[in-house]
């Protein structure tokens, strides 16, 4: 397989004075008062920015914020400015007017790329225009690289494209799951069975044990014919059937159920019509802990319960087990997964935390991403 081109393979002296289009994922959560409420992704992206600055590149950072182009990147710029001197330009033309006059090492950021309709439609003309901003393109936006957008796959058709440091780290670490040390335990939680199905298909062969917890388990329970009451269950669960007889698969043996104002621990086959499963139970956490005891690798995606409503006991418990595991290297990722654990003070205890949500799932499922292919000659 051909390897994508990498920033680290460019001779540092060649970066001096070069105009670099740097795609980052600075789509940070913004609070009701308009401030960045969590700068985790930005901090992970800083090494590449700092490197380009130190080597004297003239960098234009490109990012989106929010699903459409309605938001301004101004709050993100404010956080960036705490770390580095960065200024904003509104449009591509604004940058083109100043780029050649800049001192080596100067950094600008382009306003929310999704303000341009050509971005998400991946219009060729728009990608070509973006490409005029740089001599080279660096993609360090792993978390967006499952998207075929102009600033991800379009620009490197017109100027040479390279993978940034965070992106490289993501690929190197997530790829360890394809060649795991054994015992290799996969813990899959969260919701939306259909988006996690490719992962199951891939890891049913690679993993030694797969724990299916969170709302994902409900699809399996439904296929087993259990009453699921008010619990969250996907409409079509038929594709869960193929895994039901696998000896590798572990479903929760107990669940925390809400019924009106009452919360109780139940066996998953004993639900009543108005019961709602909101977390896995203590025995299930115990079973996971026991079986994962001698693991050499643990891959975890998906909260185990509805943590937003404070049904987070099992998620907290497994997070601690995995973070403090004496023998297992861990790989953890997923947008909601990170949200669910970020206040536990464990972030630097895991082996590797992926900044990708959907991108991580796609990479783990397919072994590549459109954004990687675009950097591979
Ligand atoms: P990630 O973003 O980490 O990949 P998902 O998006 O798949 O995770 O799933 C996260 C969502 O799953 C959370 O909103 C969480 O509340 C929900 N969830 C987990 N367990 C349950 C449950 N038993 N009932 C309802 N929702 C659940
Ligand atoms: Mg999610």
Task: Present the secondary structure layout.
Elements: E1 19-23, H1 40-54, E2 58-62, H2 74-83, E3 86-89, H3 92-98, E4 107-110, H4 117-120, H5 124-131, E5 136-139, H6 150-154, E6 161-163, H7 165-174, E7 184-188, H8 193-206, E8 209-212, H9 216-223, E9 249-250, E10 255-259, E11 262-266, E12 276-280, H10 282-291, E13 297-301, H11 313-323, E14 329-333, H12 335-341, E15 352-353, H13 358-366, H14 370-373
Parallel strand pairs: 1-2, 1-5, 2-4, 3-4, 5-6, 7-8, 7-13, 8-9, 13-14, 14-15
Antiparallel strand pairs: 10-11, 10-12
Helix pairs in contact: 8-13, 10-11
The protein binds adenosine-5'-diphosphate and magnesium ion (MG).
Magnesium ion is lined by residues 334-336, 357.
Question: What does this protein look like?
Answer:
- The protein is of the alpha/beta class.
- It has 14 helices and 15 strands.
- β8 (209-212), α9 and β9 (249-250) form a beta-alpha-beta unit.
- The longest helix has 15 residues, at 40-54.
Write out the strand line-up for the largest beta sheet, numbering strands in chain order.
Answer: 3-4-2-1-5-6
The small-molecule ligands in this entry are: adenosine-5'-diphosphate, magnesium ion
Order of SSEs, N→C? EHEHEHEHHEHEHEHEHEEEEHEHEHEHH
Shape annotation: elongated
Largest sheet data: 6 strands, parallel
What is the CA-atom radius of gyration, in angstroms? Answer: 22 Å
Say how many strands there are. Answer: 15
Beta fraction of the residues? Answer: 15-25%
Proportion of helical residues: 25-40%
Intertermini distance:
11 Å
Mean of residue pLDDT values: 96
Structural class: alpha/beta
Count of helix runs: 14
Given as residue ranges, the uncertain stretches (5+ residues, pLDDT < 50) are none
